[in-house]
Design brief:
Helices cover about 75% and strands about 0% of the residues. By secondary structure, the protein is mainly α.
């Protein structure tokens, strides 16, 4: 590991942190902020929330790879941890530091954002260390992480009932995609339409119930 060129180490860390994917997480925060506050959102708070989202996303990815080391050693030995390009001890420190950085950035964005960040960090840990492989709780936790990331954006403004549709729709969409990918990996493609259709029918029913109760006004 020590003889690995600096360029190779950098590439390994970029793979581990999934930095190329972080704009999708920031986009959720930006969408939430615009829905809740429009163009009146405070730039400094938005920057802090965006940084928190990147830190949470990358920290969750590192934690995910730490949990998957055994499986990756068998199926994806080229990945940073099983290949030895990044040490497990370094990855554990990075995961903790990134989640801590996310919380610190949330605190800079405000107390409401810090509350959202605490919930998001808790969901990330719950998913990776607790329910990741559960057929129902795993997709639900993954969807909740993505939805709470949008709530982090909402925390920068004054969300109305309609604004809460953003994390709801985003979370439900991620749940459907997670169910889809798990069925594909499990070789149960024939049941995919029913599985994904059930998720979306549930969303329609939930939206109808919220509208009937006047909660989307």
């Amino acid at each position: 590991m020590d003889s690995l060129p600096s360029r190779g180490r950098l590439h390994a860390w970029l793979q581990l942190l999934r930095l190329a994917n972080t704009p999708t997480a920031v986009a959720d925060v930006l969408a939430g902020a615009l829905v809740a506050a429009g163009f009146q959102v405070d730039p400094g708070r938005l920057l802090a929330a965006g940084l928190a989202s990147v830190a949470f996303y990358s920290g969750g990815c590192v934690l995910n790879d730490l949990v998957d080391q055994g499986e990756d050693a068998q199926l994806r030995p080229e990945r940073p941890l099983p290949s030895g390009r990044v040490r497990s001890s370094q990855a554990r420190l990075a995961a903790g530091a990134l989640l801590g950085l996310g919380l610190a950035a949330c605190a800079l964005a405000g107390l409401t954002s810090l509350a959202a960040g605490l919930a998001l960090a808790g969901l990330i840990v719950l998913y990776d260390l607790g329910v990741k492989d559960h057929p129902l709780l795993g997709p639900a936790a993954m969807a909740s992480c993505r939805a709470m990331n949008a709530v982090l954006g909402l925390s920068l403004g004054w969300p109305t009932g309609v604004a809460w549709l953003l994390p709801l729709l985003l979370g439900w969409h991620v749940a459907a995609l997670t169910v889809l990918s798990r069925h594909e990996i499990g070789g149960a493609a024939g049941r995919l339409p029913a599985a994904v259709g059930t998720v979306w029918l549930g969303l329609i029913a939930l939206l109808a119930g919220l509208a009937a109760a006047g909660l989307l006004a």
